[in-house]
Amino acid sequence: MPELPEVAALAAFLDGRAAALPIRRVDVASLSVLKTAEPPYTALTGRVVSAVDRIGKYLVIRTVPGAPDDAEPEIDLVIHLSRAGWVRWSEALSPTPPRPGGKGPIALRVHCGLPGEGFDVTEAGTQKRLAAWIVRDPAQVERIASLGPDALELSRDEFAALLAGSGGRLKSVLTDQRTLAGVGNAYSDEILHAARLSPFALAKSLDDAGVDVLYAALRATLLDATERLEGLGVAELKAEKRTGLKVHARTGLPCPDCGDTVREVSYTDRSFQYCPTCQTGGKILADRRMSRLLK
């Protein structure tokens, strides 16, 4: 799943190519992707991309009027890529719209700039969770309105208050977008490994020293990933992300820090990884939904 560093890189990539370009047409291959009907997606035609940025893990493609008779000051295309979504820029887009309801990966196609230029929003796999909204203000997207503070924008004291006010475990707190925006399954694994903390430690149990360590790990992990992805092409982002991972998606491999075997806790539709030596005092976490440390 694209998380804060990847979404930031995708936003910068698209901003560098699409900003100031007119939108010639938007093709929708999967109507279920669109979560709004007003304004219609056709309202984007003829408008100009003013900027592409992110809010949490959401891509926000901002547009301004491209014609004197367009009275809408701003209409935004907001995209949540979910688990398997991605963006692919092309200078040879087919003028033929993708077939609605087809089995291909394309969900949306945005033609902007010269003929052939633009990008596809795609989603791999059979579980279609990618979502898009056409709004006059991103705050109109309910999920965005309910987001917690951005993971890279809150202070140490704000982070401490967030942890102290939570009754959840660290893994859950870090990945709950209503509590903290931008961190997902992969980077929460990496943050907790860097902080040498168990995923199942209670957030409010951390003392001041523990908060300091976790806050430093949060910022260092996200900033390092963001810097490594900066300036890369879309096709390079996924591979570069994998090179920086120490425990996530490395079940059964040696921990690069201590050499212990990376372990996994699996749920119905997801899993996470950790190092027993680095994070749980050598104890193995039970591999079930209501997991507890084995005695």
Automatic annotation (TrEMBL):
Q: Which family does it belong to?
A: Belongs to the FPG family.
Fetch the PROSITE patterns from UniProt.
Answer: FPG_CAT, ZF_FPG_1, ZF_FPG_2
Domain of life per record: Bacteria
Q: Does the keyword Isomerase apply?
A: no
Domain (Formamidopyrimidine-DNA glycosylase catalytic) ranges: 2-102
FPG-type domain: residues covered: 246-280
Instruction: Establish whether keyword Kinase is in the entry.
Output: no
Q: What is this protein called?
A: Fpg/Nei family DNA glycosylase
Report which reactions are catalysed by this protein: Hydrolysis of DNA containing ring-opened 7-methylguanine residues, releasing 2,6-diamino-4-hydroxy-5-(N-methyl)formamidopyrimidine; 2'-deoxyribonucleotide-(2'-deoxyribose 5'-phosphate)-2'-deoxyribonucleotide-DNA = a 3'-end 2'-deoxyribonucleotide-(2,3-dehydro-2,3-deoxyribose 5'-phosphate)-DNA + a 5'-end 5'-phospho-2'-deoxyribonucleoside-DNA + H(+)
Per the record, a Pfam family?
Answer: H2TH
Sorted alphabetically, the keyword list is: DNA damage, DNA repair, DNA-binding, Glycosidase, Hydrolase, Lyase, Metal-binding, Multifunctional enzyme, Zinc, Zinc-finger
Q: Which InterPro entries match?
A: DNA_glyclase_Znf_dom_DNA_BS, FPG_cat, FPG_N, H2TH_FPG, Ribosomal_uS13-like_H2TH, Znf_DNA_glyclase/AP_lyase
